[in-house]
Amino acid sequence: MSLYRNSAWFLKGLTEFTKGSYEASSKRFVEKDLEVSAAGKSFMITGANSGIGKATAMAIAKKGGTIHMICRNKDKAEEARAEIVKETGNKEIYVHILDLSETKKVWEFAEAFKKKYKTLNVLINNAGCMMTKREVNAEGLEKSFAINSLAVYILIKSLIPLLEKSPDPRVITVTSGGMLVQKLRTGNLQSQRGRYDGTMVYAQNKRQQVVLTEQFAKAHTNIHFSVMHPGWVDTPMIANAMPDFHSSMKERLRTPEQGADTVVWLALAEAATTKPSGKFFQDRKMVSAHLPLAWTHSSQLEDQKFMSVMEELAKSFQPH
User: Fold this and answer.
1) Residue-wise pLDDT tens digits, 48-74
2) What are the boundaries of the signal sequence (predicted)?
3) pLDDT value at position 1?
4) Most Cβ neighbours (<10 Å): which of 106, 159, 256, 316?
């Protein structure tokens, strides 16, 4: 069943994920939460040349933060960088070209970054993809899983030592409300069995991100981990991968800036780190990562098994 035909999820979305719901929620936002300077802090943002990633980079650049934009397309990245520099006057914006679907290269990039830079205060895992048909990368891994789950795992795993020696370290992962209709499953990570439904594979990857966040938060208590749902946002990915949904909902979709608001809050606000680590956020508020009465809860054993599988898989591509 395609994701946006799930009625409980869709009804929740209509009341909580739209532009109107953001506008209603924003009435309770505390303005001074973001009256902060990010000068002297560094932020890595994946998928920073468009949509939520670019809006996040722009907002943090305005606060004086050093931005490391991780992008696949050099031309689009340089164009976005020039726009951010021009609008903010902040020249501390650096472009790094990396295709997150190339698993070995993700490791190589993170290990090289760690050697070159002395600090990283915030890692923002924003990049994502939704495939319309099953494709594999050079290493033989299904691409959606490689980008949305394994790359996120590798970046966190590799960069933890750098984050841990930086002040006020945080890791924020942009997930999706689609994960609310998925229970973690470790048996079919590569989507080899059954019919391939790109929206459901994406939703499963997004559930995996929630579990990764919870588990990393338990293991690394001096870093503040969070995962957030930006709402239904008008981004190139949604327009391309879910054209029917995009055209029918267009008037109700949030702007990239509205989608990025909670990411920016989680990255900068002191109030964010007063909340427990490893939690799920929506519109600057900690919310449940499951629908009421949901069957989507996984056991501690299932979560640990998933982390072991990810660890082994990641290690098999680690440069020696």
Assistant:
1) 999 999 999 999 999 999 999 999 999
2) none
3) 42
4) 106
Of 181, 177, 266, 178, residue with least CA distance to 225: 266
Chain-centre distance of CA 16, in angstroms?
19
Number of domains in the chain: 1
Percent of the chain with pLDDT over 70: 96
Q: Are 144 and 255 in contact (CB under 8 A)?
A: no
Task: Count Cβ atoms below 10 Å from residue 26 Cβ, excluding itself.
Answer: 12
* Residue 68 belongs to domain with CATH number: 3.40.50.720
Name the active-site residue from 4, 22, 153, 202. Answer: 202
Pairwise CA distance, residues 104 & 181, whole Å:
31
Place of tokens 């098994």: 305
Reading the block at residue 297, the tokens are 């809860």
Residue 109 lies in domain: 3-316
> What is the chain's percent helix, strand, coil content, to nearest 5?
50, 15, 35
